[in-house]
Amino acid sequence: SIAVIVQNTFHVIYNRLDRYIYILKNSKRCLFLYSCSLFPIKMVLIEGKYAHQKSENLDEYFKANGVPYIPRKMMCSTNPTVEISKSGDKWTITTTTMFRTVAYTFKLGEGYEEHMPGTVLKSTTTLEGDKLITVCVAPNGSETVRTYSFSDEGMILTYKHKESQQEAIRHFKRFLFPIKMVLIEGKYAHQKSENLDEYFKANGVPYIPRKMMCSTNPTVEISKSGDKWTITTTTMFRTVAYTFKLGEGYEEHMPGTVLKSTTTLEGDKLITVCVAPNGSETVRTYSFSDEGMILTYKHKESQQEAIRHFKRL
């Protein structure tokens, strides 16, 4: 009869619903696998090369780790390049800065050593989704965690000091195309200047020497031999050459004074920080292009800037 057919149909539907409810309650993994078959998962490419863009709270993080003032400031001033590669079951993370290149090769889940200045860390790296997570333990038991989070655009590297809970973040951009490096070495001829008299005046240069320096059309030559750089400046009055290593201090002898200077390389820029005996600080930034060089001077105390434009010879 119709009543019997309806009753049997109801029992079939009820039994099937009961089975589905059982699966949902007791086998979430089945549901996950089912959804995966319907919606393909897009995996982010981890391997590649990444260029540093900006940092947040880095000085505070290194301070929480007990890093002394000068090494801390040096590390905060770097713009590292990070390259991540994989061969078989071995991963390699290579970090390059103006001071050194460090590479660590490891297997996921297995311990390895990271040699830092003055200490050795016991580290383990795991892969969780699109993240590489490295846990480091110092000899005193202090623990830090580095988390590399990847996207199509780049990488975010998060540091966390477990004891103090201090965090820092460094943002990196993925290299999508071969990078064109601007040639820094070469000879450059002065074309024009902006605000030069005001800059020298802010530095306390007397009137006559100031006017003499503003009237010059210098030629600048930059060369490199091994890890030593030389910047030679020639004017109608004299030729001055300074040879230095990146990140190491040297002296610049100016009329009536001696400056303590340090030069670093950041991308296509050479940046020289000069400190006078009275503590006054100035910064020279050499920015390079295929056409030439722009030399920017900045007097920290007064914030006065000047610019000199040079053409590549």
Structural account:
The structure is a single chain. The chain has 313 residues and is α+β, with helices and mostly antiparallel strands. The chain folds into 2 domains: 48-174, Lipocalin; 186-312, Beta Barrel (Lipocalin), CATH 2.40.128.20. It is 21% helix and 50% strand. The chain has 6 helices and 20 strands. Strands 4-3-2-1-10-9-8-7-6-5 form a 10-stranded antiparallel sheet. A 10-stranded antiparallel sheet has the order 14-13-12-11-20-19-18-17-16-15. Helix 5 packs antiparallel against helix 6 (207-214). The longest helix has 25 residues, at 2-26. The chain is elongated. The protein starts with a helix and ends with a strand. Residues 48-152, 186-290 form the Lipocalin/cytosolic fatty-acid binding domain. GO terms for molecular function: lipid binding.
Compact overview of the structure:
By secondary structure, the protein is of the alpha+beta class. The protein has helices at residues 2-26, 28-38, 58-64, 69-76, 196-202, 207-214, and strands at 48-56, 81-87, 90-96, 101-107, 111-116, 119-128, 131-137, 143-150, 154-161, 166-174, 186-194, 219-225, 228-234, 239-245, 249-254, 257-266, 269-275, 281-288, 292-299, 304-312.
Please describe the structure with a list of short key phrases separated by commas or semicolons:
disordered N terminus; ten-stranded antiparallel beta sheet; 6 helices; 313 residues; Lipocalin; alpha+beta; elongated; 50% strand; 2 domains; 20 strands; Calycin
